[in-house]
Amino acid sequence: MTEDEFDLFCTAAYPRLVGQLYALTGDYAEAQDAVQEAFVRAWDRRSSVLNGDQPPEAWIRTVAHRLAVSRWRRARHWWELVRGAAPPRPVPEPSPDHVALVAALRLLPEAQRTAIVLHHLCDLSVEQIAAEAGAATGTIKARLSRGRTALLAHLVSEEPHPTEEACA
Fold it and tell me: Could you give the dihedral angle defined by the CA atoms of residues 105, 107, 113 and 116, in that order, rounded to the nearest 10 degrees?
């Protein structure tokens, strides 16, 4: 079968096959996808499929039906997994210290904040941070030092002093 003959065959058989598969699946878009995929597979195997003992339209209908059933089974299996999954564990609220740290980090310049987070939270070395930032190690050390100082100032200013608590 030549390419032009295959195109004519597809044009004639496609609506019939989609209609048949739609009746089987109840999903028009799924029927279109499965039939289209079956035509692609038929084209890839055109020498054996189109010149074989079985009519090509029957072969395509069988392949499309199998594709639709396979997709339906996968979707059903996925749904069973999702539906049967345990409810998500509750996420604990952040501690007041965590909230204060995040708020203080937001007040830092971006370069200092990045250096502190990468060094203290991600456990990267000064050299690794310098390579990632494209800066000298001395620059990263300065950002860490300045960032720690500023962070301490922000954290200390937010915490009540012991004398303030006694007066309250």
Answer: -50
Q: What is the DSSP letter of 52?
A: S
Cα–Cα distance, 164 to 4 (Å, whole number): 89
- C-alpha closest to that of 1 among 38, 66, 48, 59: 48
Exposed/middle/buried for 40, CB within 10 Å: 0-12, 13-18, 19+?
exposed
**pLDDT tens across 141-150, in order?**
999 999 999 9
Token pair listed for 65: 């039906």
What is the distance between the alpha carbons of residues 167 and 159, in angstroms, rounded to a whole number? 15
Q: How confident is the model over 22-60, as pLDDT tens digits?
A: 877 778 899 999 999 999 998 888 777 766 677 888 888
Length of the chain: 168
How far apart (Å, rounded) are the C-alpha atoms in residues 35 and 57?
Answer: 11
Average pLDDT of the chain is 84
